[in-house]
Design brief:
alpha+beta
Length: 203
């Protein structure tokens, strides 16, 4: 890790989340005053699919699979502070560095995942959660839940672009988990299903 990233990580570790509703993505009801989103995709059937997808998600597979680097890298644990870094393709702009903190994790027989919240320096304030679940019928789903509002001046100034980037990121997360599970299962007998429409608010 470069000295610049190390300094930014040290600063992020001493900071508090820049929104008050920490952990709210763990509940069914999201806080008001934010744009809200819920999107999910069907992955397949059975505990083996849940386990494979859940380990992928806890290992930051959603983020790594959509072009982010995670510093420092380790499976998500409650209280961990990370920097997500993204280089925009074919552009000479500086790499975007996004400070986040894992605010909760879950690892249960029918539910695996985590939520992270924004820290000062993030272009948004709010929270995102990435959770794999298995319902009573044994069907396995991956869901992304988020509430956020734009925080940085440059994000507010370029709101249409920022909203588009948020949408593309969410779609990328869903696609990354689907592809990861499909790639694993192509060696076996099961295969994941197609996208199922979720409920989504505006972002």
């Amino acid at each position: 890790m470069s000295e610049t990233l190390a300094r930014r990580l040290a600063a992020a570790r001493t900071a508090s989340p820049n929104y008050p509703e920490v952990g709210a993505t763990k509940s069914a009801r999201l806080p008001s005053g934010y744009a809200q989103l819920r999107r999910r995709v069907h992955l397949g059937h059975g505990p083996a699919v849940l386990e494979r997808a859940g380990r992928y998600v806890l290992g930051w597979g959603c983020q790594l699979g959509t072009g982010f680097a995670v510093h420092p890298y380790a499976p998500a644990e409650t209280g961990a502070t990370v920097l997500l870094r993204l280089a925009l393709p074919r552009l000479r702009w500086p790499r975007v560095v996004i400070p986040c903190r894992v605010v909760w994790t879950v690892d249960e027989p029918d539910r695996i995942g985590f939520g992270y919240g924004t820290l000062p320096g993030h272009p948004e304030c709010g929270e995102e959660a990435f959770v794999v679940t298995m319902d009573a019928a044994g069907e396995v789903w991956f869901e992304v839940t988020a509430f956020a509002r734009l925080a940085a001046w440059y994000a507010r100034l370029g709101r249409p672009v920022a909203v588009l980037c948020q949408y593309l990121a969410i779609e990328g997360y869903l696609a990354a988990v689907t592809a990861a599970v499909a790639g694993t299962e192509s060696q076996g007998t099961e295969s994941p299903g197609t996208d199922s429409p979720g409920t989504a608010g505006t972002r």
